[in-house]
Amino acid sequence: MSRSQGVNGQRLFRAVTSGLPTLWLCVFFLAPFALVLKISLADPVIGQPPFTPLIDATGSLHLTFDNYRLVFGDSLFLASYLGSLRIAALASLICLLVGYPMAYAIARTPQPWRTLLLLLVMLPFWSSFLLRIYAWMGMLSTHGAFNTALLTLGWIERPLALMYNDFAVYLGIVYTYLPFMVLPLYAVLEKQDPDLREAAEDLGATPWRVFMDITLPLSLPGIIAGLMLVFIPAVGEYVIPTLLGGLDTRMIGRALFDEFFVNRDWPLASAVATVLLLVVVLPVMIFQRGRGGAHP
Amino acid sequence: MTADTPVISTRDLSKQFGDYVAVDHLSLDVRAGEIFVILGGSGCGKTTLLRMLAGLEQPDTGRIFIDGRDVTDTPPYERPVNMMFQSYALFPHMSVSDNVAYGLRKEGLPRATIRDRVREMLGLVKLEGLEGRKPGQLSGGQRQRVALARALVKRPRVLLLDEPLAALDKKLREHTQFELSNLQDQLGVSFVVVTHDQEEAMTLASRIAVMDQGRFVQVGSPQEVYEYPATRFVAEFVGSTTLFAGIVRESGPEGVVIVCEGIESALPGPPSAALQAGASALIAVRPEKIQLSKERPEAAAGRVILQGIVQDLAYYGGRSVYRVRLPGGQMVSVSAQNRIRAAERTLEWDEAVFLSWARESAVVLQG
Question: Does the pTM exceed 0.90?
Answer without folding.
Answer: no
